[in-house]
DNA sequence: TTGACATGCAACCTTTAGGTTGCCTATTAT
DNA sequence: ATAATAGGCAACCTAAAGGTTGCATGTCAA
């Protein structure tokens, strides 16, 4: 899971994921077009995304096609974010409860 | 939002958040007890978490109390993860549809 | 079959991240 | 008043991250 968090920490890599979200199965060259850095730099970012299992690769001749894998993001959301999400909702609930108490009981 | 992703990228910082999730409002010293590094290192991590607005701080005398703020995590979940979550559900849906077609139409 | 295209590999550089050590300051308790 | 406690500040170190350049390789198209 650490690899996924690390992979998501970089703006360029998030842009790559967004790019694949817009149009899945793009080649390295196509993905490069949207980032202001050399092809080799993009390659490195994509290798990290592959290592985190966020991107899967299929070779077709000399072309390397990249596909988004949403599963790791889903897992993070389930096992990690969900916990804090519940806390957030609870905080909102407490706030609401507090406000309602205010309505019926002004000395608080 | 970048600051939040970066803050979450480090295992020690995630542990700090988990620690606060277990027991909110801990002092620096208390938080240090759970990590195998110097107080100063922990301070740096906490400063990053504060910068990302994931942790809020209240001074009480010489004690620095740390409180978890789940809002940024919620925002990430809403504006970023949700998008890929939907993709994931859609993929599952497509898979399910495919299986059902298999049941009724075996030549696929 | 040869040139252009798509990508890989490896060495290198610079900045940042994570951590340590040493010392200083402010608050609390005796 | 003073000693112990809780924490801040700043310099420093090392490793890793992000990026570049140069050259090599495999595939396609004329």
3D structure, described in words:
- Two copies of one chain form a homodimer.
- The first copy, chain A, is an alpha+beta fold.
- The first copy, chain A, has two domains: 2-69, Arc Repressor Mutant, subunit A (Orthogonal Bundle), CATH 1.10.10.10; 70-108.
- Chain A is 66% helix and 13% strand.
- Chain A is built from five helices and three strands; from the N terminus they run H-H-E-H-H-E-E-H.
- Chain A has a three-stranded antiparallel β-sheet with strand order 1-3-2.
- In chain A, strand 2 and strand 3 (63-68) form a beta hairpin.
- In chain A, helix 1 runs antiparallel to helix 4.
- The longest helix of chain A has 34 residues, at 71-104.
- Chain A is elongated, with a radius of gyration of 21 Å.
- The model of chain A is unreliable at 103-108 (pLDDT under 50).
- At the A-B interface, helix 1, helix 2 and helix 5 of A face helix 1, helix 2 and helix 5 of B.
- Chain A binds a DNA duplex (30 and 30 nucleotides) through helix 4.
User: Which chains have the largest interface?
Assistant: A-B, 24 and 24 residues
Q: How many helices of chain A?
A: 5
CATH topology of the largest domain in chain A: Arc Repressor Mutant, subunit A
CATH class of the largest domain in chain A: Mainly Alpha
Low-confidence stretches of chain A are 103-108
- Could you tell me the mean pLDDT of chain A? 88
Strand order of the largest sheet of chain A: 1-3-2
How many structural domains does the protein architecture of chain A include?
A: 2
Class per helix and strand makeup of chain A: alpha+beta
Shape of chain A: elongated
Oligomeric state, counting identical vs distinct chains = homodimer
Strand content range of chain A:
5-15%
Return the CATH architecture of the largest domain in chain A.
Answer: Orthogonal Bundle
Counted beta strands of chain A: 3
How would a crystallographer describe the biggest sheet of chain A?
3 strands, antiparallel
Gap from first CA to last CA of chain A: 45 Å
Question: What's the Cα radius of gyration of chain A?
Answer: 21 Å
Q: What's the CATH H-level superfamily name of the largest domain in chain A? A: Winged helix-like DNA-binding domain superfamily/Winged helix DNA-binding domain
Order of helices and strands of chain A: HHEHHEEH
